[in-house]
Amino acid sequence: MLCVGTYGPHPPYVAPRELYGCYLDKVSLPEETFAYADHPAPEGRIMRERDPEVVRAARAAYYGLVEFEDQQVGKVYDAYQAYLKRTGREVIFVYVSDHGEQIGYRGYFGKSTFYDASSHIPMLFIGDGIQKGRRLHGAASLMDLGPTLCELTGASPVPKADGVSLVPQLTGGADDLERMVLAEVDGALVEKMRASLAEACRPVEQIREQAENPADNLTVLSHCNHDSDSERRHCPERARHYPDPMVKSHLSK
Known about the structure:
The protein has nine helices and four strands. The chain has helices spanning about 15-25, 50-85, 115-120, 145-155, 165-170, 185-200, 205-210, 215-220, 235-240, and strands at about 45-50, 90-95, 110, 125. Helix 1 (about 15-25) crosses helix 2.
C-alpha cells in the first residue's frame, strides 16, 4: 500500500495567484446562512467572519486550493498508472480527506462543527471491479476504509472493525440510504454541546441515559431548537446539498 498525504486545501487560504483570480468572480456567497441563529457549541472555537468581501476572497482562495490539489493528485495518479502499466499489476486508488471546511457557511471558517460543510468529506474510489461514474448518497465513514480495502484486496478482515465494507455499493449493489454514522470532536466541544442540549432540549442526565440507544438519542436531538426545520433532514438527503457544488475548472474549457 502506498499512502500520499498533502496539507491542502486548508487554512491559511492562500492559492496560486492565477487560480485565486479565476474564482474570485465565480464563487457564490452563502449569505442566507449568515442570518441563522448562532449555536452556542462552537462559540469561541472557530474563526468567524461575515463581511461579504472577506468571505468571497476566502472562498475564491479555497476553491483555487482545491483545483491546485486536484492537479497534484492528478500527477500522482498518472505516475502510478504508468507504474502499473509497466508492471501489469491491478490497483485500487482512493482519495479522501480528514475533514470538510465551512468556508463562510454560517459565517464560520475551518472545522470544529458538526455542520455538513465541516463533517462532509470527499471519498473517491477508482480501480478494478469498481463501478465507474457512480455516486453514492448513503452515509459513509473514514472507518469504512479498512474493511473496504481488505475486501477489495482479498486481505484478512480488520478485527473488531467499527466501520463496514463499502464493496457491495462500489461494485453495483444497492445504496444504503438508511445507514447512520457517528462523528466526534474533542471533549470541550462535547461538553458545550451537552450543556446546550440540557438548556434547549432535555436534562443532560436524560441524554446520557439514552446515549446508548441511537434511536432514543435521535428522539432527544429532535427536540432541539437551535437550527431551522429545513436543516433537520435525513442525512442522505443532506449529502445531495453540501458542500456547495464546486465551480467548474477553467482549465477544462
